[in-house]
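Just curious. Protein, please.
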Amino acid sequence: MFSKSQFSWMMPVSVVWTLMVNVLNQVRPNPINLLPEPPSMALAPQKICIVTGSNTGIGKETARKMAGYGYSVVVACRTASKGESAASTIDGAEFIAPLDLSSFSSVRNFVKEFKAKYERLDVLVNNAGMNSFDGGSESVDGLDLCFQTNFLGHFLLTRLLLPLMEKTEAPRVVNLSSVMHHFGSNLKTAEDWKLGMKVGCANAYSDSKLASVLFSMELNRRCPKLKSFAVNPGAVNSDIWRVMKERNPFLFKHVISPIFRTIYLDTDEGSVTTVAAAIIEDLDPATSLYLQPYASPEKSKTCHPLWEMMGVFVGFSATKARLPGGDGEESGRGLWDASTELCGL
């Protein structure tokens, strides 16, 4: 695993790399893995998809694309007015109840409302999250707010919905990870993970994104009927940077935002890895557990984070995630056990 001090020098190198390779790509373009064309007819029977955090950004674009592929999409977010507004702009989408992932009670209530209306679930996209600028706060359940929002809330949501997913023919769970999983802590046992979930953990964001990869791996091991993937959407110019904008509006408007528009992906591009993991039939977690959107010279081994921070957009590319102990097996089991206990399952 890499440290935060290493991240500080990798980022400027990645910016230079991105500018250079995108210029070269104009001369010799990389092949792009495109998403398939949406079907001309609705799916039969109607398939159901939940996308968390789908009132804005990557989540909203994911919901729009999934609806275009014929899914009945449930927009899941904290605020009813925002969820209803987002659903009203997407044909085939609806909002049924608020979902605050930083509250176990809210997660359980959302699942109750969902089960009252639906008897099946085909695809669950665990997209919602907060970035590391929001870290250090406490959730209503007494845990690190960032870690619970990004991971534990999704862990509980998924576990409670698994009985409905097992009723379908080919269910999928897509967990949003990040290049920052490379910078996660070397947590292995359940006790390690419980310590890492405490309020104010300095590495909460990176650990939550590492947890998302390990969770997909554990779901595939424990639920053979289901396929689960973890995805890095890439560096995306989306609403996830809102805290940075709120803290320094002038700097964000005149310096940061123009840079983001130049070298970051837009939400259309940023949703590609997620949608690919949700709909492409021949994707196999055994070889494609982790998808990321950039061209990489290291496809046969664990990708260096430099190639995942930014670069030439190629749609979606399967690379190996960086896991504690190499295979992540002990860490995955410890994460599952700790999360099960803390979620009261």
Summary: The first strand starts at residue 48 and ends at 52.
